[in-house]
Write a structure and sequence with these properties.
There is one protein chain. By secondary structure, this protein is α+β, with helices and mostly antiparallel strands. The chain folds into two domains: 75 residues, Glutaredoxin (3-Layer(aba) Sandwich), CATH 3.40.30; 61 residues. It has five helices and four strands, in the order E-H-E-H-E-E-H-H-H. Strands 2-1-3-4 form a four-stranded mixed β-sheet. Helix 1 links the parallel strand 1 and strand 2. Helix 1 runs parallel beside helix 3 and helix 4 packs antiparallel against helix 5. The longest helix has 26 residues. The structure holds glutathione. Pfam families: GST_N (PF02798).
Amino acid sequence: MVKYTLNYFDTAGRAEAIRLMFHAAGVDFNDNRMSREEWLENKTDGKRFPLHQMPTLEVDDNVICQSSAIARFVARELGFYGNNSLEQAVIDQVCETFSDIGAELIKIIFGGNDEEAKVPEIFLIFKSIAKRSANSQKHFFTACNLST
Ligand SMILES: N[C@@H](CCC(=O)N[C@@H](CS)C(=O)NCC(=O)O)C(=O)O
């Protein structure tokens, strides 16, 4: 059986979608939630943290970094990445839109007040991509099932 360890802080951030896929699939993984002190002690361990960043996913003796690469790998492994290239493109377009929205939200949270004016625009973008991508019959973005 494959042994998975997901390394991240004890927060949702860039790891939550990955955690949710493991839980949804009922697949065991080591949800290694590191404190800031623990992270600072381990950050320069180039084998587990090749980019000196988290999240990383250890898959037996291999290490994957970059949250979207990890998410896509886990989605493929656990059956959440569509049934064909077109479904994968739909999943990718939703994920990329979420990533754009996330970047804007970070600006709002950490930026000045001016950024808040963008909130309605951001939700319009989400509504539009959700409408374009959703399979109205099944409440999923793809015809198949739950996806990334
Ligand atoms: N593009 C990377 C960004 C990773 C990233 O920025 N990780 C942050 C946490 S969200 C981190 O490791 N911060 C701690 C540090 O740089 O010491 C990804 O998506 O995985």
